[in-house]
Each structure stands twice: as C-alpha cells, then as structure tokens.
Design goal:
Belongs to the trehalose phosphatase family. By secondary structure, the chain is of the alpha/beta class. It folds into two domains: 189 residues, HAD superfamily/HAD-like (Rossmann fold), CATH 3.40.50.1000; 73 residues, Alpha-Beta Plaits, CATH 3.30.70. 38% of the residues lie in helices and 20% in strands. A hairpin with a 5-residue loop joins strand 6 and strand 7. Helix 2 runs parallel beside helix 9. The radius of gyration is 18 Å and the shape is globular. Bound molecules: ligand L263DTV3.
Length: 275
C-alpha cells in the first residue's frame, strides 16, 4: 500500500488501521472506480473493484460511492446489485452529487423531484450547440441534469473552454449551476455537492475516520469536507486517482495512486492489512 506523503494522511491511515470498524470508505465512480472511456454508457468499474470492495466492506463501518451519475446507473455499471456484491450490505450510492440515494440493504432509490430548470435548459440547448463540433454531445441524466461532453470533439479542451461561458449563462437563467468535469460541463440543480453528502454520511454512520478517493473537480468539495473533519479531530485520508487531465486533485491529496487500478489496489491492500 502506498504511503501518504502528508502527516495528516499518515495519521488518518494509522487511525483507519487501528479502528476500521469506525471508518467510512467513500469513493467517486468515474475516473476513480471506473476507467474513463469515450462513451459514459460503456464505463464499468475496474474488474477488481467489486472483489476488493466485498473484501473490505465487512471490515469497516460503511462504504459509500458519491457520484455525479444517477444512483441507479452507478449501481448498474459498478455491478453492485448482482450476486457478486455479497458482503456489500453497508454500501450506499449517493447519486447526482448526493441528491439521490440507493441503499444496498433495500435496493431502493430516493430522490427529490426534478428541478424545472432542467426541462427549460433542454429546450434551449440544441440552438446553443448548433454549429459546434459534431463530437460535442448531450448526455441526458434522467431529467435531473444534463451533461455536455466534449471528449469526442476534434479539439476537446478548446470546445470545453468555448462552451463554458454560454452554458453558465444558460444554467444561471434557469436557476441551475454548471459543474465542470473531465471534458464535461454538467448543468444541474444547486444546493448539494459531494462535500455536503460526505459530511451528512459521516454523521449518519458515526464514522470516526474517513478515506475519500476522487479524481475530478467535482470531488474537491469532498476533499474540503475531509479537511474540515480533520480540523474537528476526525482523521481523513485524501486519495487522488491520478490522471493527466486534472491536476487540482493531486495537489490536495495525501496519496496519489495510478488511476482506478491504483485505487482498487489500495482497497485490496487495505482489506488484506485489516485481515
Ligand atoms: O462523479 P463522477 O462519478 O466522477 O461522475 C462525473 C461525470 O462522469 C461522467 O463523465 C466522465 O466519465 C465519462 C466515462 O468515462 C467520460 O466519457 C467523460 O469524459 C468524463 O467526464 C458522466 O458521463 C457525467 O454525467 C458525470 O457528471
């Protein structure tokens, strides 16, 4: 298992190893548990993710996946609902940045009503994207958000930069926010982020230490939440699933691992050490 490069990270790892039954393991999905691919529908958890999680979950207080995806999409693409997910009864998936929730114990999804701004934005989006590179496309997210992807454009970063301003104006006019990610600009309701979701889940589970792993800008509120928990005396280990697309996350992390394969290796090692 890699060694955290910061004193706070080493303290948190020691706390996790000493008292795993009060540890919350919280993980992002895309880019952290699942390798990045061109088509979001094709994203699947790393093949070793499920075995690693089923080995680790019974040894800790709780495991949560906190994702921008609809909860049921993350559940399906991670393979959490199938027979291979034995031992994951303490697993919760917090979708749409924490606005939605799926619990392994019940298999049910709870969600607030859709924000009316999403339908309004959807009707204006085609005109705004008219004339864009044909590789720019819109992901529908169950009527609760829309994501404009530029990964397939001829010049992905230039398309992202050009669209950011107009999409922000559009979102603002309809009471939404823009969540920038890895070559994606998501228009979604305000009021929830991964930091709020993580703090709520720490309170709910009574966790006394936390590990959070993420790779993207949308994970930074969760990183800030862990930093706040540390100030309040709750040790937290910040893990970056490293990529060459986002540098802000590795700069804030205690431990940088090599993408989803590295995250899964860390989870597996943790499970082995706790045995
Ligand atoms: O919070 P996350 O689990 O990281 O989800 C955030 C967004 O991830 C998805 O997009 C990213 O992954 C795609 C599949 O690998 C990739 O094609 C895209 O470029 C990435 O940005 C997802 O499609 C979005 O809806 C999520 O908001």
């Amino acid at each position: 298992m890699g060694t955290p490069t910061t004193p706070a990270g080493r303290e948190a790892l020691d706390a996790i190893l000493a008292d795993p039954s009060h540890t919350l393991i919280a993980l992002d999905f895309d880019g952290t548990l699942a390798p990045i691919v061109e088509n979001p529908e094709d994203a699947r958890a790393h093949p070793d993710a499920l075995p690693a999680l089923t080995a680790l979950a019974p040894k800790v207080a709780a495991v949560a996946v906190i994702t921008g995806r609809p909860a049921e999409v993350a559940v399906r693409n991670a393979g959490f609902a199938g027979a291979g997910a034995k031992g994951l009864d303490h697993l919760t998936v917090l979708g749409h940045y924490g606005a939605e929730r799926w619990d392994a114990r019940t298999g049910a999804v709870t969600a607030p009503p859709p924000h009316p701004g999403i339908a309004a934005v959807r009707t204006e989006l085609s005109a705004l994207l008219d004339g864009q590179d044909p590789g720019v496309w819109v992901e529908e997210k169950g009527g609760r958000a829309v994501a404009v992807h530029t990964r397939r454009a001829t010049a992905p970063q230039a398309a992202f930069d050009a669209l950011r301003g107009p999409l922000t104006d559009l979102a603002t006019r309809h009471g939404l926010i823009v969540e920038p990610g890895r070559l994606v600009l998501e228009l979604r309701p305000p009021g929830m982020d991964k930091g709020v979701a993580l703090l709520d889940h720490v309170r709910e589970t009574g966790a006394r230490s936390v590990l959070y792993a993420g790779d993207d800008l949308g994970d930074l509120p969760a990183f800030a939440a862990v930093e706040k928990l540390r100030e309040d005396g709750v040790p937290g280990l910040l893990v970056c699933s490293g990529s060459n697309e986002v540098t802000e996350v590795s700069a804030r992390a205690d431990l940088v691992v090599d993408g989803p394969a590295g995250v899964v290796g860390l989870l597996r090692e943790l499970a082995a050490q706790l045995a």
